[in-house]
Design goal:
Blueprint lengths: L2 H5 L8 H6 L8 E3 L2 E5 L2 H12 L4 H15 L9 E7 L5 E6 L9 H5 L20 H12 L4 H14 L1 E2 L2 H9 L1 H5 L2 H7 L11 E2 L2 H12 L3 H4 L1 H12 L7 H6 L3 E4 L1 E5 L2 E5 L6 H11 L11 H21 L6 H5 L2 H13 L15 E9 L4 E9 L7 E2 L4 E2 L3 H5 L23 E4 L5 E6 L5 H15 L4 H6 L3 E4 L12 E5 L4 H9 L4 E4 L9 E5 L6 E5 L6 E4 L1
Parallel strand pairs: 17-18
Antiparallel strand pairs: 1-20, 2-10, 2-21, 3-4, 3-11, 4-7, 5-6, 8-9, 9-14, 10-11, 12-13, 14-15, 15-19, 16-17, 19-20
Helix pairs in contact: 3-4, 4-7, 7-11, 15-16, 15-20, 16-18, 16-22
Amino acid sequence: MPADSAASLASGRVEAGTVAELGCQGRGPTVGYGGMVSSSHPAVSRAGIAVLEAGGNAADAALAMAAMSWLALPGQCGVGGDAFVLLRRPDGTVVSYGGSGFGPDGGEPGFYRDGRGLAAVPLEGPLAVAVPGAVAALAALHAGAASWDLPRLWEPAAAAAERGMPCTYKTRDDIAERRDALSRDPGTAAVYLPGGSVPAVGTPLPQADLAATLRRVAADPASFYSGELAERAVSALAAAGAPFSGDEWAATGEPLVSAALAGRYQGATVHQTPPPTPGWMVLQQAGLNDGRLSELPWMSAEAVHLAASAARLAFADRYAGCGADNDHWAGLLAPAALAAARGRVAAGDLPAPAVPAVPVDGDTTSMVVVDGEGMAVSLIHSLAFTFGARITVPGTGVVLNNRLGRGAYLIDGHPNEVRPRRRPLHTLNAWLVTGAAGKLLHVGNTPGGDGQVQWNAQLLSHLLDHGLDPAAAVAAPRFTVHPGSDADVLGQPPELRVESRLGTERIGALRGMGHAVTVQSPWGAGGSAQVISVDGATGALLGAADPRQDGVALSV
Protein backbone atom coordinates (compact mmCIF):
# COMPACT_ATOMS: atom_id res chain seq x y z
CA MET A 1 0.00 0.00 0.00
CA PRO A 2 1.38 3.45 -0.85
CA ALA A 3 2.64 5.49 2.09
CA ASP A 4 0.04 8.22 1.61
CA SER A 5 -2.74 5.61 1.71
CA ALA A 6 -1.30 4.09 4.88
CA ALA A 7 -1.10 7.49 6.50
CA SER A 8 -4.75 8.16 5.68
CA LEU A 9 -5.73 5.27 7.94
CA ALA A 10 -4.36 6.78 11.13
CA SER A 11 -7.84 8.00 12.05
CA GLY A 12 -9.35 4.58 11.38
CA ARG A 13 -11.04 5.55 8.12
CA VAL A 14 -10.18 4.75 4.53
CA GLU A 15 -9.87 7.33 1.78
CA ALA A 16 -11.64 6.70 -1.51
CA GLY A 17 -8.34 6.36 -3.37
CA THR A 18 -7.37 3.41 -1.22
CA VAL A 19 -10.68 1.72 -1.89
CA ALA A 20 -10.32 2.33 -5.62
CA GLU A 21 -6.81 0.85 -5.57
CA LEU A 22 -8.25 -2.48 -4.50
CA GLY A 23 -11.00 -2.44 -7.09
CA CYS A 24 -14.02 -2.03 -4.82
CA GLN A 25 -15.04 1.53 -5.49
CA GLY A 26 -18.12 1.99 -7.63
CA ARG A 27 -21.69 2.97 -7.11
CA GLY A 28 -22.28 4.04 -3.53
CA PRO A 29 -24.78 2.50 -1.16
CA THR A 30 -28.54 2.73 -1.50
CA VAL A 31 -29.87 5.48 0.80
CA GLY A 32 -33.28 5.73 2.50
CA TYR A 33 -35.11 6.64 5.70
CA GLY A 34 -38.40 4.75 5.88
CA GLY A 35 -37.00 1.24 5.56
CA MET A 36 -34.58 -0.85 3.51
CA VAL A 37 -34.01 -4.40 2.32
CA SER A 38 -31.10 -6.18 0.68
CA SER A 39 -30.86 -9.68 -0.78
CA SER A 40 -29.15 -11.73 -3.50
CA HIS A 41 -32.02 -11.56 -6.03
CA PRO A 42 -34.12 -8.60 -7.26
CA ALA A 43 -37.41 -10.47 -6.87
CA VAL A 44 -36.58 -11.25 -3.25
CA SER A 45 -35.74 -7.64 -2.48
CA ARG A 46 -38.88 -6.50 -4.27
CA ALA A 47 -41.01 -8.85 -2.17
CA GLY A 48 -39.64 -7.29 1.00
CA ILE A 49 -39.89 -3.66 -0.07
CA ALA A 50 -43.50 -4.21 -1.18
CA VAL A 51 -44.36 -5.29 2.37
CA LEU A 52 -42.62 -2.27 3.90
CA GLU A 53 -44.35 0.07 1.46
CA ALA A 54 -47.72 -1.42 2.45
CA GLY A 55 -47.11 -0.86 6.16
CA GLY A 56 -45.61 -4.17 7.25
CA ASN A 57 -42.66 -4.29 9.62
CA ALA A 58 -39.18 -5.72 9.16
CA ALA A 59 -40.20 -9.20 10.36
CA ASP A 60 -43.09 -9.23 7.87
CA ALA A 61 -40.76 -8.19 5.06
CA ALA A 62 -38.15 -10.82 5.98
CA LEU A 63 -40.76 -13.58 6.02
CA ALA A 64 -42.02 -12.56 2.58
CA MET A 65 -38.46 -12.43 1.29
CA ALA A 66 -37.58 -15.84 2.70
CA ALA A 67 -40.51 -17.49 0.94
CA MET A 68 -39.81 -15.71 -2.36
CA SER A 69 -36.18 -16.80 -2.24
CA TRP A 70 -37.34 -20.42 -2.18
CA LEU A 71 -38.53 -19.77 -5.74
CA ALA A 72 -35.92 -17.30 -6.95
CA LEU A 73 -32.88 -19.18 -5.57
CA PRO A 74 -34.02 -22.82 -5.43
CA GLY A 75 -30.53 -24.29 -5.34
CA GLN A 76 -29.61 -22.23 -2.32
CA CYS A 77 -32.61 -22.56 -0.01
CA GLY A 78 -36.03 -24.13 0.36
CA VAL A 79 -38.82 -25.31 2.62
CA GLY A 80 -36.72 -28.44 3.16
CA GLY A 81 -33.74 -26.53 4.56
CA ASP A 82 -32.67 -24.76 7.75
CA ALA A 83 -32.85 -21.09 8.77
CA PHE A 84 -31.46 -18.75 11.42
CA VAL A 85 -32.63 -15.25 12.24
CA LEU A 86 -31.48 -12.36 14.40
CA LEU A 87 -34.18 -9.86 15.30
CA ARG A 88 -33.56 -6.46 16.87
CA ARG A 89 -36.75 -5.06 18.30
CA PRO A 90 -37.35 -1.28 18.34
CA ASP A 91 -36.65 -1.29 22.09
CA GLY A 92 -33.12 -2.55 21.42
CA THR A 93 -33.49 -6.18 22.57
CA VAL A 94 -32.00 -8.81 20.26
CA VAL A 95 -33.49 -12.29 19.86
CA SER A 96 -32.23 -15.33 17.94
CA TYR A 97 -34.56 -17.77 16.15
CA GLY A 98 -32.99 -21.04 15.07
CA GLY A 99 -34.38 -23.74 12.84
CA SER A 100 -31.99 -26.70 12.72
CA GLY A 101 -33.09 -30.30 12.51
CA PHE A 102 -32.12 -33.64 13.97
CA GLY A 103 -30.90 -36.61 12.01
CA PRO A 104 -32.86 -39.87 12.09
CA ASP A 105 -33.57 -41.53 15.42
CA GLY A 106 -32.02 -44.70 14.05
CA GLY A 107 -28.88 -42.89 12.93
CA GLU A 108 -26.37 -44.30 15.42
CA PRO A 109 -22.74 -44.34 14.19
CA GLY A 110 -22.95 -48.11 13.75
CA PHE A 111 -25.80 -47.71 11.28
CA TYR A 112 -23.39 -46.00 8.89
CA ARG A 113 -20.14 -47.79 9.77
CA ASP A 114 -21.26 -51.36 10.35
CA GLY A 115 -24.56 -51.52 8.56
CA ARG A 116 -23.42 -49.65 5.45
CA GLY A 117 -19.63 -49.84 5.55
CA LEU A 118 -19.33 -46.06 5.29
CA ALA A 119 -16.42 -43.85 6.39
CA ALA A 120 -18.56 -40.70 6.40
CA VAL A 121 -22.22 -39.79 6.36
CA PRO A 122 -23.25 -39.61 2.68
CA LEU A 123 -23.44 -36.20 1.06
CA GLU A 124 -26.38 -36.99 -1.21
CA GLY A 125 -29.60 -38.97 -1.05
CA PRO A 126 -31.82 -39.98 1.89
CA LEU A 127 -28.98 -40.77 4.34
CA ALA A 128 -27.71 -37.18 4.02
CA VAL A 129 -30.96 -35.60 5.24
CA ALA A 130 -31.63 -33.90 8.57
CA VAL A 131 -35.14 -32.83 9.52
CA PRO A 132 -35.71 -29.37 7.96
CA GLY A 133 -35.76 -26.57 10.53
CA ALA A 134 -36.57 -23.53 8.39
CA VAL A 135 -40.33 -23.66 8.83
CA ALA A 136 -39.99 -23.85 12.62
CA ALA A 137 -37.65 -20.84 12.76
CA LEU A 138 -39.76 -18.71 10.43
CA ALA A 139 -42.98 -19.61 12.25
CA ALA A 140 -41.34 -18.56 15.53
CA LEU A 141 -40.23 -15.26 14.00
CA HIS A 142 -43.79 -14.73 12.78
CA ALA A 143 -45.28 -15.46 16.19
CA GLY A 144 -42.77 -13.26 17.95
CA ALA A 145 -42.61 -10.16 15.78
CA ALA A 146 -44.80 -10.09 12.66
CA SER A 147 -47.86 -7.90 12.17
CA TRP A 148 -49.35 -9.60 9.08
CA ASP A 149 -50.71 -13.14 8.93
CA LEU A 150 -48.47 -15.75 7.34
CA PRO A 151 -50.79 -16.74 4.46
CA ARG A 152 -50.78 -13.10 3.32
CA LEU A 153 -46.98 -12.94 3.51
CA TRP A 154 -46.40 -16.19 1.65
CA GLU A 155 -49.12 -15.94 -1.00
CA PRO A 156 -46.88 -13.98 -3.45
CA ALA A 157 -44.37 -16.84 -3.30
CA ALA A 158 -47.11 -19.45 -3.71
CA ALA A 159 -48.43 -17.57 -6.74
CA ALA A 160 -44.91 -17.37 -8.18
CA ALA A 161 -44.54 -21.13 -7.71
CA GLU A 162 -47.84 -21.73 -9.49
CA ARG A 163 -47.01 -19.64 -12.55
CA GLY A 164 -43.29 -20.50 -12.54
CA MET A 165 -40.36 -18.28 -11.63
CA PRO A 166 -38.16 -17.59 -14.68
CA CYS A 167 -34.91 -19.55 -14.61
CA THR A 168 -31.91 -17.28 -13.96
CA TYR A 169 -28.35 -17.72 -15.18
CA LYS A 170 -27.34 -18.92 -11.72
CA THR A 171 -30.15 -21.46 -11.46
CA ARG A 172 -29.47 -22.70 -14.97
CA ASP A 173 -25.79 -23.19 -14.13
CA ASP A 174 -26.67 -24.86 -10.82
CA ILE A 175 -28.92 -27.30 -12.66
CA ALA A 176 -26.39 -27.98 -15.41
CA GLU A 177 -23.60 -28.73 -12.93
CA ARG A 178 -25.79 -31.21 -11.01
CA ARG A 179 -27.85 -32.59 -13.86
CA ASP A 180 -27.00 -36.25 -13.25
CA ALA A 181 -27.94 -36.11 -9.56
CA LEU A 182 -31.15 -34.17 -10.20
CA SER A 183 -32.18 -36.54 -12.97
CA ARG A 184 -32.10 -39.55 -10.61
CA ASP A 185 -34.99 -38.20 -8.52
CA PRO A 186 -38.40 -37.94 -10.26
CA GLY A 187 -39.51 -34.94 -8.20
CA THR A 188 -36.46 -32.78 -8.81
CA ALA A 189 -36.20 -33.84 -12.45
CA ALA A 190 -39.82 -32.92 -13.15
CA VAL A 191 -39.23 -29.32 -12.02
CA TYR A 192 -35.63 -28.57 -12.90
CA LEU A 193 -35.13 -30.75 -15.99
CA PRO A 194 -38.37 -30.17 -17.91
CA GLY A 195 -38.47 -32.50 -20.86
CA GLY A 196 -35.20 -33.99 -19.69
CA SER A 197 -33.19 -30.89 -20.55
CA VAL A 198 -31.48 -28.09 -18.66
CA PRO A 199 -33.87 -25.13 -18.93
CA ALA A 200 -32.84 -22.05 -20.87
CA VAL A 201 -32.52 -18.74 -19.04
CA GLY A 202 -35.96 -17.16 -18.78
CA THR A 203 -37.85 -20.46 -18.91
CA PRO A 204 -40.65 -20.49 -16.29
CA LEU A 205 -40.30 -23.32 -13.78
CA PRO A 206 -43.85 -23.93 -12.48
CA GLN A 207 -44.20 -25.88 -9.22
CA ALA A 208 -47.85 -26.61 -8.51
CA ASP A 209 -47.05 -29.08 -5.71
CA LEU A 210 -44.84 -26.55 -3.96
CA ALA A 211 -47.47 -23.83 -4.30
CA ALA A 212 -49.97 -26.06 -2.52
CA THR A 213 -47.40 -26.90 0.18
CA LEU A 214 -46.62 -23.23 0.79
CA ARG A 215 -50.30 -22.42 1.28
CA ARG A 216 -50.80 -25.39 3.58
CA VAL A 217 -47.74 -24.60 5.71
CA ALA A 218 -48.60 -20.89 5.88
CA ALA A 219 -52.02 -21.79 7.24
CA ASP A 220 -50.58 -24.25 9.79
CA PRO A 221 -46.77 -24.40 10.16
CA ALA A 222 -47.04 -27.20 12.72
CA SER A 223 -48.41 -29.49 10.00
CA PHE A 224 -44.94 -29.66 8.52
CA TYR A 225 -43.71 -31.51 11.63
CA SER A 226 -46.64 -33.57 12.84
CA GLY A 227 -49.25 -33.70 10.08
CA GLU A 228 -49.64 -35.21 6.64
CA LEU A 229 -46.58 -33.45 5.24
CA ALA A 230 -44.39 -34.91 7.96
CA GLU A 231 -45.87 -38.38 7.41
CA ARG A 232 -45.15 -38.17 3.69
CA ALA A 233 -41.56 -37.15 4.26
CA VAL A 234 -40.87 -39.80 6.91
CA SER A 235 -42.48 -42.55 4.85
CA ALA A 236 -40.51 -41.64 1.73
CA LEU A 237 -37.20 -41.42 3.57
CA ALA A 238 -37.76 -44.63 5.52
CA ALA A 239 -38.68 -46.46 2.31
CA ALA A 240 -35.38 -45.25 0.84
CA GLY A 241 -33.39 -46.60 3.77
CA ALA A 242 -33.06 -43.62 6.13
CA PRO A 243 -34.01 -44.70 9.69
CA PHE A 244 -36.42 -41.86 10.56
CA SER A 245 -39.13 -42.60 13.11
CA GLY A 246 -41.19 -39.42 12.82
CA ASP A 247 -40.54 -38.43 16.43
CA GLU A 248 -37.44 -36.48 15.41
CA TRP A 249 -39.63 -34.46 13.02
CA ALA A 250 -41.99 -33.49 15.83
CA ALA A 251 -39.01 -32.56 18.04
CA THR A 252 -37.55 -30.30 15.33
CA GLY A 253 -40.84 -28.40 15.25
CA GLU A 254 -39.79 -26.80 18.54
CA PRO A 255 -37.54 -23.92 17.37
CA LEU A 256 -34.44 -22.63 19.11
CA VAL A 257 -35.44 -19.23 20.53
CA SER A 258 -33.02 -17.41 22.83
CA ALA A 259 -31.09 -14.26 23.45
CA ALA A 260 -28.35 -13.67 20.91
CA LEU A 261 -24.68 -14.15 21.71
CA ALA A 262 -22.86 -10.85 22.19
CA GLY A 263 -19.27 -9.64 22.14
CA ARG A 264 -17.42 -6.34 21.96
CA TYR A 265 -15.52 -4.94 19.00
CA GLN A 266 -14.21 -1.40 18.56
CA GLY A 267 -16.48 -0.19 21.36
CA ALA A 268 -19.63 -1.63 19.77
CA THR A 269 -21.64 -4.75 20.61
CA VAL A 270 -21.69 -7.51 17.99
CA HIS A 271 -24.72 -9.84 18.26
CA GLN A 272 -24.53 -13.32 16.78
CA THR A 273 -26.60 -16.48 16.42
CA PRO A 274 -25.91 -19.16 19.10
CA PRO A 275 -24.99 -22.82 18.46
CA PRO A 276 -25.50 -24.94 16.48
CA THR A 277 -24.32 -21.99 14.36
CA PRO A 278 -20.67 -20.91 14.46
CA GLY A 279 -21.56 -17.37 15.49
CA TRP A 280 -19.17 -17.67 18.43
CA MET A 281 -16.32 -18.02 15.90
CA VAL A 282 -17.01 -14.51 14.60
CA LEU A 283 -16.94 -13.24 18.19
CA GLN A 284 -13.69 -15.11 18.84
CA GLN A 285 -12.07 -13.52 15.79
CA ALA A 286 -13.40 -10.13 16.93
CA GLY A 287 -11.84 -10.69 20.34
CA LEU A 288 -8.50 -11.61 18.77
CA ASN A 289 -8.50 -8.69 16.31
CA ASP A 290 -9.98 -5.93 18.47
CA GLY A 291 -7.55 -3.01 18.68
CA ARG A 292 -5.13 -4.69 16.25
CA LEU A 293 -6.59 -4.40 12.75
CA SER A 294 -7.61 -0.79 13.35
CA GLU A 295 -3.92 0.06 13.83
CA LEU A 296 -2.85 -1.50 10.53
CA PRO A 297 -3.34 -0.17 6.99
CA TRP A 298 -6.60 -1.44 5.57
CA MET A 299 -6.14 -4.71 3.62
CA SER A 300 -2.36 -4.63 4.12
CA ALA A 301 -0.53 -7.94 4.08
CA GLU A 302 -0.03 -7.66 7.84
CA ALA A 303 -3.77 -7.13 8.39
CA VAL A 304 -4.73 -10.04 6.14
CA HIS A 305 -2.18 -12.25 7.92
CA LEU A 306 -3.62 -11.44 11.35
CA ALA A 307 -7.23 -11.91 10.26
CA ALA A 308 -6.47 -15.16 8.43
CA SER A 309 -4.53 -16.50 11.42
CA ALA A 310 -7.44 -15.72 13.73
CA ALA A 311 -9.78 -17.59 11.37
CA ARG A 312 -7.44 -20.58 11.19
CA LEU A 313 -7.32 -20.72 14.99
CA ALA A 314 -11.11 -20.53 15.26
CA PHE A 315 -11.51 -23.51 12.93
CA ALA A 316 -8.92 -25.51 14.87
CA ASP A 317 -10.75 -24.75 18.11
CA ARG A 318 -14.09 -25.68 16.57
CA TYR A 319 -12.79 -29.01 15.36
CA ALA A 320 -11.02 -29.75 18.64
CA GLY A 321 -14.09 -29.86 20.83
CA CYS A 322 -17.27 -28.26 19.57
CA GLY A 323 -20.60 -29.93 19.13
CA ALA A 324 -24.07 -28.48 18.81
CA ASP A 325 -25.03 -29.68 22.28
CA ASN A 326 -21.97 -28.69 24.36
CA ASP A 327 -20.60 -25.36 25.56
CA HIS A 328 -16.93 -25.84 24.66
CA TRP A 329 -17.15 -22.63 22.63
CA ALA A 330 -18.07 -20.50 25.67
CA GLY A 331 -14.70 -20.96 27.33
CA LEU A 332 -12.95 -19.87 24.16
CA LEU A 333 -14.46 -16.38 24.49
CA ALA A 334 -13.24 -15.78 28.06
CA PRO A 335 -10.64 -12.98 28.36
CA ALA A 336 -7.91 -15.35 29.52
CA ALA A 337 -8.60 -17.73 26.64
CA LEU A 338 -8.53 -14.89 24.12
CA ALA A 339 -5.21 -13.67 25.55
CA ALA A 340 -3.76 -17.16 25.23
CA ALA A 341 -5.13 -17.44 21.70
CA ARG A 342 -3.41 -14.19 20.71
CA GLY A 343 -0.17 -15.83 21.82
CA ARG A 344 -0.93 -18.85 19.66
CA VAL A 345 -1.53 -16.62 16.65
CA ALA A 346 1.76 -14.79 17.28
CA ALA A 347 3.59 -18.14 17.53
CA GLY A 348 1.91 -19.57 14.43
CA ASP A 349 0.46 -22.41 16.52
CA LEU A 350 -2.49 -23.09 14.24
CA PRO A 351 -2.99 -26.86 13.89
CA ALA A 352 -5.04 -28.20 11.01
CA PRO A 353 -7.33 -31.26 11.29
CA ALA A 354 -5.77 -34.41 9.86
CA VAL A 355 -8.61 -36.62 8.68
CA PRO A 356 -9.65 -37.73 5.18
CA ALA A 357 -11.20 -35.09 2.95
CA VAL A 358 -14.17 -35.41 0.64
CA PRO A 359 -15.27 -33.20 -2.29
CA VAL A 360 -16.45 -29.69 -1.45
CA ASP A 361 -19.71 -28.06 -2.52
CA GLY A 362 -22.34 -25.85 -0.96
CA ASP A 363 -24.69 -22.92 -1.29
CA THR A 364 -26.84 -20.63 0.87
CA THR A 365 -28.59 -17.27 0.64
CA SER A 366 -29.26 -14.45 3.08
CA MET A 367 -31.08 -11.12 3.47
CA VAL A 368 -31.32 -8.11 5.77
CA VAL A 369 -34.19 -5.72 6.55
CA VAL A 370 -34.55 -2.55 8.61
CA ASP A 371 -37.86 -0.71 9.00
CA GLY A 372 -38.68 2.86 9.91
CA GLU A 373 -39.25 1.96 13.58
CA GLY A 374 -35.78 0.52 14.02
CA MET A 375 -36.72 -3.16 13.86
CA ALA A 376 -33.94 -5.05 12.08
CA VAL A 377 -33.71 -8.62 10.78
CA SER A 378 -30.73 -10.63 9.58
CA LEU A 379 -31.92 -13.93 8.05
CA ILE A 380 -29.95 -16.75 6.46
CA HIS A 381 -31.21 -20.09 5.16
CA SER A 382 -29.87 -23.01 3.18
CA LEU A 383 -30.26 -26.53 1.82
CA ALA A 384 -26.54 -27.10 2.70
CA PHE A 385 -25.26 -28.19 -0.74
CA THR A 386 -26.75 -26.80 -3.94
CA PHE A 387 -30.18 -28.47 -4.16
CA GLY A 388 -29.40 -30.19 -0.87
CA ALA A 389 -29.69 -33.98 -0.97
CA ARG A 390 -31.13 -33.63 -4.52
CA ILE A 391 -34.31 -35.50 -3.57
CA THR A 392 -37.91 -34.30 -3.24
CA VAL A 393 -40.69 -35.45 -0.93
CA PRO A 394 -43.18 -36.94 -3.43
CA GLY A 395 -46.25 -34.83 -4.12
CA THR A 396 -45.02 -31.80 -2.13
CA GLY A 397 -42.38 -30.05 -4.21
CA VAL A 398 -40.13 -29.95 -1.11
CA VAL A 399 -36.47 -30.52 -1.94
CA LEU A 400 -34.68 -31.87 1.13
CA ASN A 401 -31.40 -30.67 2.60
CA ASN A 402 -28.20 -32.66 3.07
CA ARG A 403 -27.23 -30.93 6.32
CA LEU A 404 -26.57 -34.21 8.16
CA GLY A 405 -24.05 -35.32 5.54
CA ARG A 406 -22.42 -31.94 5.35
CA GLY A 407 -22.35 -31.10 9.05
CA ALA A 408 -22.03 -34.30 11.11
CA TYR A 409 -18.80 -36.24 11.56
CA LEU A 410 -18.39 -39.99 11.56
CA ILE A 411 -15.42 -39.74 13.94
CA ASP A 412 -15.56 -41.99 16.98
CA GLY A 413 -16.27 -40.07 20.19
CA HIS A 414 -16.19 -36.59 18.67
CA PRO A 415 -18.81 -34.18 20.12
CA ASN A 416 -20.00 -33.60 16.55
CA GLU A 417 -20.22 -37.33 15.78
CA VAL A 418 -23.53 -38.26 14.18
CA ARG A 419 -26.01 -39.30 16.89
CA PRO A 420 -29.80 -39.41 17.23
CA ARG A 421 -31.23 -36.14 18.61
CA ARG A 422 -27.91 -34.38 18.08
CA ARG A 423 -28.06 -31.49 15.64
CA PRO A 424 -25.07 -31.33 13.28
CA LEU A 425 -22.87 -28.26 13.47
CA HIS A 426 -23.78 -25.48 11.07
CA THR A 427 -22.01 -23.00 8.83
CA LEU A 428 -24.93 -20.54 8.85
CA ASN A 429 -24.73 -17.46 11.06
CA ALA A 430 -26.14 -13.94 11.13
CA TRP A 431 -25.09 -10.74 12.88
CA LEU A 432 -25.99 -7.19 13.77
CA VAL A 433 -24.14 -4.42 15.61
CA THR A 434 -25.44 -1.98 18.20
CA GLY A 435 -23.87 0.99 19.93
CA ALA A 436 -24.63 3.00 23.05
CA ALA A 437 -28.07 2.31 24.56
CA GLY A 438 -28.63 -0.46 22.02
CA LYS A 439 -28.72 1.91 19.05
CA LEU A 440 -28.65 0.04 15.73
CA LEU A 441 -25.43 0.58 13.77
CA HIS A 442 -25.18 -2.24 11.22
CA VAL A 443 -26.95 -5.44 10.22
CA GLY A 444 -25.47 -7.97 7.81
CA ASN A 445 -24.65 -11.51 6.76
CA THR A 446 -23.28 -13.56 3.89
CA PRO A 447 -23.67 -17.10 2.54
CA GLY A 448 -20.58 -19.14 1.78
CA GLY A 449 -20.10 -22.29 3.88
CA ASP A 450 -17.01 -22.04 6.07
CA GLY A 451 -16.28 -18.71 4.39
CA GLN A 452 -19.15 -17.14 6.31
CA VAL A 453 -17.45 -16.74 9.68
CA GLN A 454 -14.34 -15.34 7.99
CA TRP A 455 -16.09 -12.94 5.63
CA ASN A 456 -18.43 -11.73 8.38
CA ALA A 457 -15.37 -10.94 10.52
CA GLN A 458 -13.90 -9.09 7.54
CA LEU A 459 -17.13 -7.11 7.05
CA LEU A 460 -17.08 -6.09 10.72
CA SER A 461 -13.50 -4.88 10.36
CA HIS A 462 -14.29 -2.89 7.21
CA LEU A 463 -17.22 -1.21 8.94
CA LEU A 464 -15.91 -0.75 12.49
CA ASP A 465 -12.13 -0.52 12.12
CA HIS A 466 -12.03 1.55 8.95
CA GLY A 467 -15.42 3.20 8.52
CA LEU A 468 -16.25 1.84 5.07
CA ASP A 469 -19.77 2.33 3.77
CA PRO A 470 -21.80 -0.83 3.00
CA ALA A 471 -21.06 -0.77 -0.74
CA ALA A 472 -17.31 -0.66 -0.23
CA ALA A 473 -17.49 -3.24 2.57
CA VAL A 474 -19.35 -5.90 0.57
CA ALA A 475 -17.17 -5.31 -2.50
CA ALA A 476 -13.79 -5.36 -0.72
CA PRO A 477 -11.29 -8.04 -1.83
CA ARG A 478 -12.07 -11.22 0.02
CA PHE A 479 -9.67 -13.77 1.49
CA THR A 480 -10.49 -17.23 2.81
CA VAL A 481 -8.71 -19.74 5.01
CA HIS A 482 -9.27 -23.25 3.63
CA PRO A 483 -10.10 -25.82 4.81
CA GLY A 484 -12.45 -24.84 7.58
CA SER A 485 -13.95 -27.52 9.81
CA ASP A 486 -17.08 -28.51 7.93
CA ALA A 487 -17.32 -32.26 7.39
CA ASP A 488 -16.96 -31.94 3.63
CA VAL A 489 -13.51 -30.27 3.68
CA LEU A 490 -11.69 -31.80 6.65
CA GLY A 491 -8.14 -32.83 5.87
CA GLN A 492 -7.61 -30.87 2.66
CA PRO A 493 -4.23 -29.08 2.45
CA PRO A 494 -4.19 -25.62 4.05
CA GLU A 495 -4.51 -22.67 1.70
CA LEU A 496 -5.11 -18.95 1.92
CA ARG A 497 -7.37 -18.13 -1.01
CA VAL A 498 -7.32 -14.48 -2.08
CA GLU A 499 -9.02 -12.53 -4.82
CA SER A 500 -6.47 -11.19 -7.27
CA ARG A 501 -7.61 -7.62 -6.57
CA LEU A 502 -5.59 -7.80 -3.37
CA GLY A 503 -2.57 -7.07 -5.58
CA THR A 504 0.68 -8.80 -6.41
CA GLU A 505 2.70 -6.94 -3.77
CA ARG A 506 0.42 -7.99 -0.90
CA ILE A 507 0.08 -11.53 -2.25
CA GLY A 508 3.87 -11.84 -2.42
CA ALA A 509 4.19 -10.54 1.13
CA LEU A 510 1.68 -13.11 2.38
CA ARG A 511 3.65 -15.89 0.72
CA GLY A 512 6.73 -14.55 2.45
CA MET A 513 4.87 -14.88 5.77
CA GLY A 514 4.42 -18.60 5.11
CA HIS A 515 0.90 -18.70 3.65
CA ALA A 516 0.18 -21.14 0.83
CA VAL A 517 -1.65 -18.56 -1.26
CA THR A 518 -4.06 -19.55 -4.02
CA VAL A 519 -5.03 -16.62 -6.24
CA GLN A 520 -8.66 -16.50 -7.33
CA SER A 521 -10.25 -14.41 -10.06
CA PRO A 522 -10.93 -10.76 -9.16
CA TRP A 523 -14.43 -11.50 -7.81
CA GLY A 524 -14.11 -15.26 -7.42
CA ALA A 525 -14.11 -15.81 -3.65
CA GLY A 526 -17.83 -16.55 -3.45
CA GLY A 527 -20.40 -15.34 -1.00
CA SER A 528 -23.08 -12.70 -1.42
CA ALA A 529 -22.84 -10.25 1.48
CA GLN A 530 -25.66 -7.93 2.50
CA VAL A 531 -25.19 -4.90 4.77
CA ILE A 532 -27.48 -2.11 5.98
CA SER A 533 -25.96 0.62 8.17
CA VAL A 534 -27.46 3.57 10.01
CA ASP A 535 -25.73 6.90 9.43
CA GLY A 536 -24.94 8.32 12.86
CA ALA A 537 -25.28 11.95 11.82
CA THR A 538 -28.51 11.86 9.80
CA GLY A 539 -30.22 8.59 10.72
CA ALA A 540 -30.32 7.63 7.05
CA LEU A 541 -30.15 3.98 6.11
CA LEU A 542 -27.25 2.98 3.85
CA GLY A 543 -27.36 -0.45 2.23
CA ALA A 544 -25.69 -2.58 -0.41
CA ALA A 545 -25.77 -6.06 -1.91
CA ASP A 546 -22.65 -7.97 -2.92
CA PRO A 547 -21.67 -7.46 -6.60
CA ARG A 548 -20.59 -11.12 -6.74
CA GLN A 549 -24.25 -12.10 -7.20
CA ASP A 550 -27.39 -10.55 -8.64
CA GLY A 551 -28.66 -8.88 -5.48
CA VAL A 552 -29.94 -5.39 -4.86
CA ALA A 553 -30.68 -3.13 -1.91
CA LEU A 554 -33.97 -1.19 -2.09
CA SER A 555 -35.37 1.53 0.14
CA VAL A 556 -38.79 2.93 0.97
